[in-house]
Design goal:
With 78 residues, the chain is mainly alpha-helical. Helix content is 73%, strand content 0%. It has two domains: 33 residues, no CATH class; 33 residues, no CATH class. It is extended and about 50 Å long.
Length: 78
Amino acid sequence: MKAINTLKTSLIDKILTIENQELLEALQTIVNSASDEKVKFTDAQKAMLQMSEEDIKYGRLTTQEALDEEDMAWLSGQ
């Protein structure tokens, strides 16, 4: 799995440096055609998605601002 993540990161780094619009459009076509594949989730991933849906349904949400404040409090040792 580490090899895949390393490859992804390497590709992202290289794509960020490309200025050729035609090349970027060609890459986008390739990526879009690959994304047409069905995503297969594990049972654990399906359970996590279901829990997320229930959290949304019942309003158990946190704003980004609240998360940032919690992070800052934690980082400052409060």
